[in-house]
Design brief:
Elements (H helix, E strand, L loop, with lengths): L6 H9 L1 H12 L9 H25 L5 H14 L13 H13 L8 H4 L7 E9 L8 E6 L14 H7 L1
Antiparallel strand pairs: 1-2
Length: 171
């Protein structure tokens, strides 16, 4: 004699797919860090849930079939490299390095150009006159100028013939 399935069980089976899929995906690549502190266990679990959800969104948006382990590895690598600057260590230079230093001395030093968001924010970019001339930092401009931007610290042309100052901060 067949037993009739209760309505609650039918409803659960109909909507259980997402939870079981999440549990399955969490079980494959679970964070193995253990702790006696209850709040750290919750934090690690939420971190795992976040990683799985981001991976699923990535696959949906990009249509990529990247494995979850590879995705987690890429995320970890990019987080480790965030803010990393390749700074040369202080040590005795080799012959090759010495040649590079000599070439750099001939060229002179270059100033750091700020990021695009700072350049294009249209806020507090004022021309200032400096006592020394420097080469204009606008691409394809080779003239020397006394004018510098007060916010960026970049040397730019600003005269009646050409205005690299305005073009540099708008494009």
């Amino acid at each position: 004699m067949p037993i009739k399935c209760p309505n609650v069980v039918k409803h659960y089976n109909k909507h259980m797919g997402g939870v079981d899929l999440l549990d399955s995906l969490l079980g494959r690549h679970k964070n193995r860090t253990r702790s006696k502190k209850w709040y750290l266990r919750i934090f690690y679990h939420l971190l795992d849930v976040t990683a799985v959800n981001v991976w699923l969104l990535y696959r949906r948006v990009h249509g990529d079939k990247m494995r979850q382990a590879d995705f987690r590895e890429e995320v970890a690598e990019s987080l480790c490299k965030m803010g990393y600057r390749n700074v040369a260590k202080r040590r005795r230079p080799s012959n090759n390095t010495e040649q590079q230093i000599q070439m750099k001395k001939k060229r002179g030093f270059t100033l750091h150009v700020p990021v695009k968001n700072v350049l294009l924010d249209n806020n507090s970019h004022w021309p200032d006159w400096k006592p020394t001339r420097q080469r204009c930092k606008m691409p394809q401009c080779k003239s020397l100028t006394y004018v510098h931007c007060t916010k960026c610290g970049v040397a730019l042309c600003l005269n009646k013939d050409k205005s690299c100052f305005v073009g540099f901060h708008t494009t």
